[in-house]
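S1.2 Input.
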Amino acid sequence: MAAVRVLADHPEVDARLAEFGVTRQALLEVVRGVVAARADAIADDPASAEGQLAYIYGTRYVRQLFRAIGWVNYRENNVESVKHPDSPLKVVYQSVDLAADKLHKPQAVSGKGSGADRIIAVGQAGLFPEEEMSAARDQSLAELRTGVWFFCVSVQGDDVRAELSLPSGISGGNFEGFIERIFILDGGEWPADAILDSDRPDGIEFEPAVLRR
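S1.3 Output.
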């Protein structure tokens, strides 16, 4: 199923992210942290080291960002996330094969297990009946107080991309489709000199923002 809505222009992305209480710039800091963490892997590490570091630090930085605006750490069915304090709304970090490409739906690098399947099925259940899918284009976060969103980051050499997206479900161990995709970092937008070296603090400082309720 094609995404109901894809937001790629920076002004509309900024406006949509404001409904989450975060900024595109803050999410770019999370991406930079993920790239730096991956760069810490060396030849003597296990082959999965880059992916493991990306997951650990991606989850850490996503949580730090949203906790700065009042969200809380959450864990369900072995899926690590951060949750809105007053609603079932959640955000999960995810490394994917290719993000922010309108012709490709991102796929989790390590696949998705039954735990993710269950939380998405519950979180997205009844969100939009099939016959009402087009109405989702006019939904705002203020009206949509549920759903499990994924902050998807892909790193292929100097091609770094990211999106914050709402999957419709899991099929065959991976994302089946998406209800909405918000492109944070598109192809060609990642300057080589933006990649941080590995000598960074053990965290990212995020400016607290007013939590929209």
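S1.4 Remarks. The chain has a mean pLDDT of 82.
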